[in-house]
Amino acid sequence: xxxxxxxxxxxxxxxxxxxxxxxxxxxxxxQQVFILQPTPVPTPAPTPTVTPxxxxxxxxxxxxxxxxxxxxxxxxxxxxxxxAVNSPLTISGQARGPWFFEAEAPVQLFDGNGQVIAQGSxxxxxxxQTPDFVPFAGVLNFSTPPTDVGQLVxxxxxxSGLPQNSRQIIxxxxxx
Length: 176
What we know:
The chain is of the alpha+beta class. It has a domain of about 120 residues: Immunoglobulin-like. Helix content is about 15%, strand content about 35%. The protein has one helix and nine strands; from the N terminus they run αβββββββββ. Strands 1, 2, 3, 4, 5, 6, 7, 8 and 9 form a nine-stranded mixed β-sheet that branches. The longest helix has 30 residues. The radius of gyration is 27 Å and the shape is elongated.
């Protein structure tokens, strides 16, 4: 009977040590989990003399460069920089297929105070699953803003949500 009791105690000790070890290891793995969230890209104040600029999202490590020239990714036909615009605002141009996801890419219109006054998307007018340029169009409706100037921000579709994959172009506009 004493031998059985001794075996029982040894088995119980092994089980308890195993549970304690499992708890310690699982606690360590939980502490090492990192949740990555995209860093918002600050919108600079509009300047009437600014031309379209390619701005990659900030990252902690160097982002892979798609191209050094924004015209290799997207070309805006309308509105032109510093053009006077009103609602509804028609946006058109062409972008390489990877700029889109499911044929769309997001667009936002900001007033001079940095407030979003309209948001929507541009839509590829042909097959977007190509590395070639694809024509796009979109329309934004907005109320008259409190400022005379603003910015139209076209972003690439970024289904991964990774900041290093985020690209945008900023077009300064004037409101009528």
